[in-house]
Amino acid sequence: MANILELVNISKSFDNELILDELNLEIRENTFMTLLGPSGCGKTTTLRIIGGFTRQDSGQVLFQGKDITELPPNKRQFNTVFQKYALFPHMNVGENIAYGLKISGKSKSYIDSKIEYALKLVNMDGYRNRAVSALSGGQQQRIAIARAIVNEPKVLLLDEPLGALDLKLRQELQYELIRLKNELGITFIYVTHDQEEALTMSDTVVVMNQGYIQQMGSPENIYNEPENAFVATFIGDSNIIDSLMLRDRLVQICGTAFPCVDEGFGINRPVDVVIRPEDVILDEPGRGQLDGVVTHLVFQGVHYEMEVMAGGFEWLVQSTQIQPVGKEVSLRVDPENIQIMSKPASEDEEAMVIDA
Amino acid sequence: MRKRRLLTTPYLAFILCGTVIPLLAILYYALVDKNGSFTLSNLASVADPVHLKALGLSLLLAFFCTLICLLLALPLGLMLRKNGDKNRNMVIFLLILPMWMNFLLRTIAWKILLQRTGVINTLLGSLGLGRLDIINTPGAVVLGMVYDFLPFMILPIYNVMVKIDNSLVEAAYDLGASPAKVIRDVLLPLSVPGIISGITMTFVPAMTSFAISEILGGGNIYLIGNIIEGEFLRGGSRNVGAGLSMVMMIFILISMALLNKFDKNGEGTVV
Questions:
Q1: Closest C-alpha among A259, A248, A240, A254 to residue A336
Q2: Is B90 left (phi over 0), alpha (psi -120 to 50) or beta?
Q3: Taking the domains of chain A in order of start, what are their residue ranges?
């Protein structure tokens, strides 16, 4: 698969504050790529630079190998779905969807069939003559998606499109976006701060922080093998523990040696260990690797969340088995669930570009 | 509940004394003759050729004044939209500043500027550019009206335009619209409430003004306002003056009603 888009050394500052620093990103054709990060990490700025709404200070945007830096948004073959829908309030649903096609001078019959097709695609059949103001938030966002895709863009840009919707609707629309992407066969670039959304929908997740790409990879890769503490804490809950890599395949956590699967960190090197709370298994005292006491217990629906004091560290544990507060337990972690990360040498390095 | 109703009393009193009673008085004078007996001749006096001509000229000048104000205010509103808050407020402040001076003084100042031997002509003459001969013409009156009423067109249009969500502009741009089409398809339609409001607030005072035409028209230009003023203050019949006022009010109400039909939401409705 070829790269449809390439960002080359993109830098951008606002009011002397560096938002993006020499960002490089390659986006393959026909993928669902998500830019994920906390607010202010530069993800929206990156999307706006791709769309042409914001001009980068330096660097190039390449579309199918050609530099499109000078092209205004109306000349780029992309369409955008905005966070707050941005439907034209003085036009009805059909007129909103038709707008891009009218601008490009399509025939009336073509526009008609496209509107009907797009309304079906977003499950809004029969809403053609409704006023925009009569629609709910979720319906408005469906229309905004329809308005973008009727123009058959090469790339669809989505700027936190589900951010303003409630959880149930958000999940519903997540599945619809995946279906749409598969049906349309176009590239989606999706911006969100919601890690669950990113993991659910994406082929590729790009985790960003402070204008740098922290990690890029498949959702499984990002979740199971975070490359630094930022990614580990931002994606899901995790225990990050100061540890010592004794030798290949053996790490000392909280004073106890745990077998692991990582190699090549050297001998007796300090490292960070990431262990997901659902990977910590609780057992009767003495039967696991490290003994401790349950200190907190919260019921969270699908599981219980507990905190276990063991080896001087408060372990976050998620399990469907309840262990009451005060109970002595023993915890155990399978070797493949222990993720080893090199310690950052400095704060600067923590924010550095890490290539996937 | 009763206490709250009490709070409305000053406003009700104002409406009663300031609007209802004077209107009824005008209505009364319009419908009676000098001796106090009922007649429709005051209303019918609008058909008098002199009055008709004044009404026609008033309409024409008010139309041009409104049109020029609109053509000046729309680009300004579009430009101010793109500017930051700081610049924006400064420009608006400078535009409104002249309004802090008495409007008669401002109009008299224009008379002095435009006179045959006034500042502008002296300047043009010394540059060898001939003379600007517009004092005492309808052109000078329109100029004075535009100068006096322009802020009333700018403010409502500006207020509506700066509030248009920028993501709508970006969405249109994103869908392939050129900057000109973004203005035509998004910015102007969404500014309609402000435009209607601006037209109302410019057209009505221009239509009814008499001071500007008197000062800059040199007593040669009779607008309907001048006729009514003459009837009331210069030995005419106050009944005829009231009759003409009534007719003009009905006229303005009808034109405003027509105008407001364009404004579906009624957000910019003033009259």
A1: A259
A2: alpha
A3: 3-224, 238-344
CATH superfamily of A3-224: P-loop containing nucleotide triphosphate hydrolases (3.40.50.300)
The partner residue sitting opposite A88, judged by closest CB among B168, B176, B178, is B168
ipTM computed for the complex: 0.82
pLDDT for B72-128, tens place per residue?
999 999 999 987 777 888 888 898 888 888 889 999 999 989 888 888 888 888 888
Mean pLDDT calculated for residue range B157-184? 95
Inter-CA distances, A300 with A199, A304, A319, B44, Å: 20, 6, 10, 84
**CB spacing of A74 vs B177 below 8 angstroms:** yes
pLDDT at B1: 58
Q: Which residue among A72, A83, A103 sits closest to B175, beta carbon to beta carbon? A: A103
Q: Count CB neighbours of B26 within 10 A.
A: 17
Domain span at residue B230?
48-260
Neighbour order of strands in the sheet with A313-319: A280-283, A328-333, A290-299, A304-310, A313-319
Residue reference for tokens 């998500």: A34
What are the structure tokens assigned to A283, written together? 């057992």
Task: List, in sequence order, every residue forming a beta bridge with A32; answer none if it has no partner.
Answer: A188
The residue of B163, B173, B175, B178 whose CB has the most chain A CBs within 10 angstroms, and thus the best one to mutate to test that interface, is: B175
Q: Please provide the CATH number assigned to the domain covering A238-344.
A: 2.40.50.140
Task: Give the three-state DSSP class for A40.
Answer: coil
Q: Per-residue pLDDT tens for A56-113? A: 999 999 999 999 999 999 999 999 999 989 999 999 999 999 999 999 999 999 999 9
